[in-house]
Structures are given as C-alpha cells and as structure tokens.
Amino acid sequence: MSGNRIESLVDEVQAAFDQRPDEIESGLDTNEADVLQLRKSCRLLAGAASLLDEGFYTIVIETSFVAIERVVEFKLLERGVEPRDLPGTHPGVYTEAARRGILSEYVADNLQDLWRNHRAKTYYQDGLAARVRAEKLFELATETHEYVVNQSVKRHECLCE
Predict the structure, then answer these.
(1) DSSP tally for the chain: helices H, then strands E
(2) 31-155 adopts what CATH topology?
(3) Distance between CA 126 and CA 61 in Å, rounded?
C-alpha cells in the first residue's frame, strides 16, 4: 500500500458518494426523513445482534448507542422537528427527547451519562468491551427501540422482526 494508492482510493470513495447510488440497502429507500432514521435503527440492531454472537463487543456497543440515537431522532422528526434542527450533539438528542416527553428525564439523563462515561471509554480503549457490557447495552437499545416505535403512528414502517 502506498500513499498514492490511498490518495487514489480517497478519490474513488469521494466519487462513489458524489454519484447517485443504484444499489441501495433494502428498506432504506425512502424520502421520509423520520422513516429513514427508524429503519437505520432497525438495521443497526440487526447488525449488532449478528455481531454479538461473533464476539465483536466493541462494534455491538458502538452500534447499540447509535441505534438508540437513530430511533430517538426518528421520533423527534415524526413530531415535526426539521432534520436541520436535530440536536447537533449525542447528549443533546436525549435532552430534546426528554423535553418533548419521548423519554423520561431519568432515562435521558442516564443515556447521556452512559454515552459520556462508557461509549467514549470503549471507543478509545480506555475501557474494555466485554460480553456482558455488549449484551446489556444491546438489550437496552432493543427495548428503547421497541418503546419508541410503540409510541409511533408509523410503527408499521419498522423493519425489525
């Protein structure tokens, strides 16, 4: 691998993102911003479930946090928040969810704490990913997803089985 090869790949990746895609992941072809976030959450959970059995705990932890955030963003969008007005920080999503009654303040505060204290530590290797941590966070993500989806008039758009 050379610096020239990396430069070439960077250009190829940029071109791939600049082109209109023709093979879109199943279920994600929608013009509704809220449904797209919901379905991303569904896919993240499905991926985490597969990877949990394989022992990829870091990815399961990271993916579970993102799945929670996507489903909360789905509900914020469904309630009329414009995509450009979504909170720009991870903890901000939970604050807005509590303010709008999607999550209790207790849950929102603790999700913020989990994000700040454990997601970053796991991601940056200050903390170690372990099976029980991955399992518990995946369980929390799955339960949060189901709870939020059950509050929605668009629950039929959920791809989870």
Answers:
(1) 7, 0
(2) Four Helix Bundle (Hemerythrin (Met), subunit A) (1.20.120)
(3) 14
Strand positions, DSSP E, the chain: none
Asked if residues 38 and 71 have their Cβ atoms less than 8 Å apart, the reply is yes
User: Where are the domains positioned within the chain?
Assistant: 31-155
CA distances to 61, 80, 137 from 127, rounded to whole Å, are: 12, 37, 15
Asked if 91 contacts 112 with a C-beta cutoff of 8 angstroms, the reply is yes
Mean pLDDT within 76-103: 93
Higher pLDDT among residues 25 and 157, named by residue? 157
pLDDT at residue 97 is higher than 90 = yes
Total-model pTM: 0.89
